[in-house]
Amino acid sequence: MSDTAADPATAGPASSDHRFQVDLRGVIELLSEHLYSGPRVVVRELLQNGVDALTARTAKDEDFKLSDGRVTLELLPARTTEDGTNHPPTLSVRDNGVGLTEPEVHEFLAKIGRSAKRGDIQEDTFIGRFGIGLLAGFLVAEEIVAITRSVEPDARPVEWRGRADGTYTVRTLNADLAPGTQVFLRAREDRLEHFEPETVRERAASYGSLLPFPVTFKHGRSGPDGGEEPLNEVPPWEQFPTDSPADREGLLEWAEAALGKKFLDAFPVTSDAGKVRGVALVRPESTVRSRTGDHRVYLKRMLLSEKADGLLPDWAFFVTCVLNADGLHPTASREELRDDAELAEARDELGMSLRRTLLRWAAKDRDRLHRLIDVHYRAVKRLAVEDEEFRKLAADWLPFETTAGRLRLEEIRKRSDDRLRFASTMDQFRQLAPVASAQGMVVVNACYTDEQELLETLPDVLPVTTEKVTAADLSEDFTELEDDAWDAASTLLNVASDALTPLDCTPDVRRFEPKTLPALYAIGEEASFLRDMERSKEQANELWGGLLNEMQKARPQVEGPRLCLNWSHPLIRNLAATAATPDDRGGAVARGTVRTAVELLYVQSLMLGHYPLGEAEFELFGDSLLGLIAAAVDGRGVGRADGAGKESDDG
Ligand SMILES: Nc1ncnc2c1ncn2[C@@H]1O[C@H](COP(=O)(O)OP(=O)(O)OP(=O)(O)O)[C@@H](O)[C@H]1O
């Protein structure tokens, strides 16, 4: 036995060649379940073939223009012929396009995956290209019949009859027909709902109403005397081509009627790349950033999708577009745009088109930009980060959350003399907010996406400086105590130091605003990081704990957290007085109570600053609270500066 694998090129005598066989029913199931969104697409595929046939005719027949084209959909009701045969309802789609010769019928209608729309032809000439669209007809029909007559001179009409079991017949007809094709779908018994007049009409109008030639619908009752009902509409970008107030109003009314929604604003957009023309509608509500678009896209004026994605740059998530693209490509399902180089180029250009409009508003139509910013400031901020010119023009109107409430940048600059202070995390912002606002200092909350990046790029376009601040930075500016106050506070500081050293925290006594805040836990960014790590270690297993230890050691020495006691607060002064109780008047007990009070202040300021508490801190909280309650019940209480505390000591 050979120990080498058989070489397919040399193995055995040559076998005879066979052709792959296609199980049509299997292919149809594949299409219906995995490619198409449902039988709705049948009308679209037939219409599309009509559009392509008309385009092909314009290339072959120089006297024929696309606007000479015509597609008619007709619904023939079920009927019984004289010989007693029942005919199911039938949908016919007729065009006066290029038609097919008999050899072409064999080549293109009967070969799955064969399309006349490939080869040397420029890719965006036709909508179809895969050679499977017609098969969609079998999603609703048992039999598809095409009667076609080519524009080729002397071509004879041909009838093709294809069945879902994979068989077909072809015959030439003697009739004298004009060039074009009429396709008939004979309803499948279990798909009759797709042959209801209103259903067909709605689908035909939805896919084909913007086509640049007459598209009509006909059925027993349509039109005044059974005539054809036109389905065409003028596209909104042709009805309202400019950004004038009148066109804007018209466009907003059109959008409300067509999309069932009141939009905030509307304006035209264009891109040479992808040959795009359309309108942008500004959403009435603020939206979160997401890639999922809901753009209504037409390709060669046929509806492709109402939920197309990837058409606009990320920052433009505040608009919905309705547009037509003659130079973009569909995916095989024909329900999305292919993510290719043309789409990328068109996306950039549409972004530029939007940006130009916003720049124009910034220069000449400020009310419009204001209205847009009020709702969509997040999106506009993203654009401001990316685009220096826009940033320069619009930055002053952008709102920010600050310690003084929501303010426009213009106001923040005025209140802070162009010195823009910001906190970079929500926790930092919360911690410093009471102190900053009590001191009349405006600090911006830059914890949201884009905010910090935007602030840091403002000095490029405006005469401002930016500075990241933390509660620890603010506490540096707290007022130092005068000598006599310092003396009065010294025992309190010693007691506080004893209480806080085991917690890696240093006490300090200063005067600061707000007077109502007895203590502030102040921690810089680095120390805050280490504190978080400490908390994580408590929850981590041994392996992670060890790793975190190493990381902690690797960080440079940083200044630790401080508990700033506020000398302006009466409680702190009372605690200082109590701590200073002479030993012969119960000083030791008093200092024990003060220590408990400091521990409680420590935990309270942690909680006020939204710092998560560690195990030791929780324990401390429980113990000191109980200690204080016990002291109160004993009648000792925490001393008061006026001596009441001392009296209770005696008592
Ligand atoms: N109305 C029509 N007029 C003329 N030719 C037609 C018509 N409908 C179909 N054909 C011919 O049949 C071929 C196959 O059509 P089909 O719809 O299956 O695929 P396609 O349009 O080429 O590509 P896709 O699968 O992307 O739609 C077409 O390429 C075209 O040559």
How would you portray this structure in words?
The strands form six sheets. An eight-stranded mixed β-sheet has the order 7-6-5-8-4-1-9-10, with helices on one face. A five-stranded mixed β-sheet has the order 11-12-15-13-14. The chain folds into four domains: 24-230, 2-Layer Sandwich (Heat Shock Protein 90); 236-370, Ribosomal Protein S5, domain 2, CATH 3.30.230.80; 374-461, Rossmann fold (3-Layer(aba) Sandwich); 483-524 and 559-634, Four Helix Bundle (Hemerythrin (Met), subunit A). It has 20 helices and 23 strands. It is of the alpha+beta class and 651 residues long. It is elongated, with a radius of gyration of 39 Å. A hairpin with a 5-residue loop joins strand 2 and strand 3. Helix 7 (341-364) crosses helix 8 (366-386) and helix 8 (366-386) crosses helix 12. 40% of the residues lie in helices and 18% in strands. Bound molecules: adenosine-5'-triphosphate.
